[in-house]
Design goal:
Layout (H helix, E strand, L loop, with lengths): L5 H10 L6 H12 L4 E2 L2 E2 L8 H6 L16 H7 L15 H12 L27 E3 L5 E5 L1 E8 L7 E15 L5 E8 L3 E8 L4 E8 L4 E6 L5 E6 L4 E5 L4 E6 L6 E6 L5 E6 L4 E5 L5 E4 L7 E6 L5 E6 L5 E4 L14 E4 L7 E6 L5 E6 L4 E5 L5 E5 L6 E6 L5 E6 L4 E5 L5 E5 L14
Antiparallel strand pairs: 1-2, 3-4, 4-5, 5-6, 6-7, 7-8, 8-9, 10-11, 11-12, 12-13, 14-15, 15-16, 16-17, 18-19, 19-20, 20-21, 22-23, 23-24, 24-25, 26-27, 27-28, 28-29
The structure holds heme C.
Length: 445
């Protein structure tokens, strides 16, 4: 297919009265065709296509478009195949008419016409289910916290009643963590290309207690120490920040990763934590001083997710190379060069890069999910595959076992929460966690 089809351009200028709108025309195409791989919790090539600001900021190769210069814009080059691999990756190319929408919008100046109402403090309005980037069972198993746009929704697992809506400042919530007594809910996220935020909620009363704002982009993988004293969170500026839960005061920040830090987890005694990054390292840090202790692993591939055994300092992490790795935090003997004796096992390769992991509260099961629509359950002691839970239609970005281990909740690109029985992967319940408004209101046009 030729890169520039002149007649199409003539056709579109003749038939289209005005230049395409970002909000009305471009954004839906991005949501439908691109956001599965290019979104905050799984930015393929560093590119997030879920907001204007992030789209403009671009990915590893720089800004994704140059206003007024369609042919020089990376987006057009990737859509037409002038740059390889052609986008959307692995599926049929967009229709010429859809590519023309991008071309015309860029040529006309690539204006952002996202309505201001999307940025105010009114309750979020949803025209379609948003991608679920995080969810968590409450420790008593009665509630489930789910990420929405600019809010966290607290649903009863039984399905009774309306959800409690915890409305905050951050546009995106990318990680959630309850304290073990269920009183605190930590939400980490932010607004892309603007700020990161850690929110500390009084969960039973739905009240925001404190927030900490940090860096100029969303933050990832917030975790709470088991004694609830500290919160660790990763960032896109390659740092990890640690906060005191009682005050939301930053205790320290560490900068020993070389790429985005996407997830963190504390050790059982709250004295250490591990951070995993796209730089391929899982770093063990002294939680009191912030001192680097050692790498848990030998570097293999970009790491996106980590979870810990409920009672032991054993972790499972995974990412780009699709293998979940189980590692001890303590070495059975002194370290030698290129020592990998802390590796307990490598679990089988998944169908896509790993984006979420969880370890059941009884220690028996490990759940693994990724850019494929299926969740795999493994026997944590042997690494043997036990079950696969299916039903999602696209990538899964969030997983949570109930603390008794009988239920597994999942969410991802298709916007539905699914709750499975871990005994046989039967679907117990599925629901859209946000209220959907049928039509676009005048104010949002
Ligand atoms: C199935 C996953 C997937 C889908 C869907 C997808 N992309 Fe990509 N995209 C990737 C990957 C992987 C790369 C890195 C490719 C490479 O350089 O090898 C990439 C790279 C890009 C880049 C270059 C970014 C940079 O700065 O490095 C652009 C631009 C892009 N994609 C645009 C799009 C658009 C627009 C869509 C939707 C029409 C789309 N992609 C859909 C996976 C995807």
């Amino acid at each position: 297919m030729p890169r520039s089809t002149g007649w199409l351009f003539l056709l579109s200028t003749a038939t289209m009265a005005a230049a395409p709108s970002y909000y009305r025309d471009v954004r839906p195409l991005l949501q439908k065709n691109c956001a599965g791989c290019h979104q905050p919790s799984a930015k393929a090539s560093g590119l997030d296509l879920t907001s204007y600001a992030a789209f403009a900021a671009g990915g590893k190769k720089g800004p994704a478009f140059a206003a007024g210069k369609a042919d020089e814009s990376l987006t057009i080059q990737y859509l037409t195949g002038a740059a390889q691999p052609r986008m959307p990756l692995g599926v049929a190319p967009l229709s010429p008419a859809d590519v023309q929408v991008f071309r015309d919008w860029i040529q006309a100046g690539a204006k952002d016409d996202t309505p201001a109402s999307v940025d105010d403090n009114r309750p979020s309005v949803y025209l379609q289910p948003p991608v679920i980037t995080s969810l968590r069972f409450s420790p008593d198993g009665k509630q489930i916290a789910v990420s929405g746009n600019r809010e966290v929704l607290l649903h009863r697992v039984s399905g009774e009643g309306a959800p409690i809506r915890l409305h905050g400042k951050a546009e995106r919530i990318l990680s959630l963590a309850f304290s073990s007594d269920g009183k605190l809910l930590i939400a980490g996220g932010g607004t892309p290309a603007q700020f990161g935020e850690v929110q500390i909620w009084d969960a039973p009363n739905g009240k925001l207690l404190r927030t900490a704002v940090l860096t100029n982009d969303t933050v990832f993988g917030a975790s709470l120490a088991p004694d609830a004293s500290k919160i660790a969170v990763g960032a896109a500026d390659n740092t990890v920040h640690v906060f005191e839960t009682a005050t939301a005061k930053e205790l320290y920040k560490i900068g020993n990763h070389e790429d985005w830090v996407l997830s963190t987890v504390f050790g059982v005694d709250s004295k250490r934590f591990v951070s995993v990054s796209r730089d391929r390292a899982a770093k063990i840090i002294d939680a009191n001083s912030g001192a680097f202790l050692e790498n848990a692993n030998l570097l293999k591939s970009e790491l996106y997710a980590i979870a810990r055994h409920p009672k032991k300092d054993i972790v499972v992490f995974g990412g780009e190379d699709r293998y979940p790795y189980v590692y001890l935090l303590d070495r059975p003997r002194n370290m030698k060069i290129a020592d990998d004796t802390t590796l307990v096992r490598r679990i089988e390769r998944q169908d896509g890069p790993i984006t979420a992991l969880d370890w059941s509260g009884d220690g028996k099961l490990i759940a693994v999910a990724g850019q494929s629509p299926k969740v795999n359950l493994y026997d944590a002691d042997t690494g043997d595959h036990k079950l696969s839970c299916t039903g999602h239609t696209a990538g899964i970005y969030a997983l949570s076992f109930s603390s008794d281990g009988t239920r597994l909740a999942t969410g991802g690109f298709d916007g539905k929460v699914r709750i499975y029985s871990t005994a046989d992967c039967s679907l117990v319940r599925e629901f859209v966690p946000v209220p959907i408004t049928a039509t676009l209101t005048a104010g949002a046009k």
